[in-house]
Write a structure and sequence with these properties.
The chain is an all-alpha fold. It is built from three helices and no strands. It is globular. The model has no long low-confidence stretch (mean pLDDT 92).
């Protein structure tokens, strides 16, 4: 899972430790499972990976105005 997230992040993956990526994935997976009210299958795991990438890309940008 972590390797797939690193690929999706591209060069931005260098800004995050494996622990941060793993935590973002675990939190995203928990959100997806809670929202869908079921255990994660392959499709939900992919969605959790995408959500983890979004969360990581938004890290440290909370409250910034464009």
């Amino acid at each position: 899972m972590i390797d797939e997230i690193k690929v999706m992040l591209g060069e931005a993956a260098n800004n995050f430790s494996e622990a941060q990526i793993s935590l973002a994935y675990k939190l995203a997976l928990a959100e997806v499972e809670a929202y869908c009210n079921r255990e994660a299958d392959d499709v939900l795991v992919l969605m959790a990976e995408r959500i983890a990438v979004i969360k990581l890309n938004r890290t440290n940008s909370e409250g910034l105005a464009s």
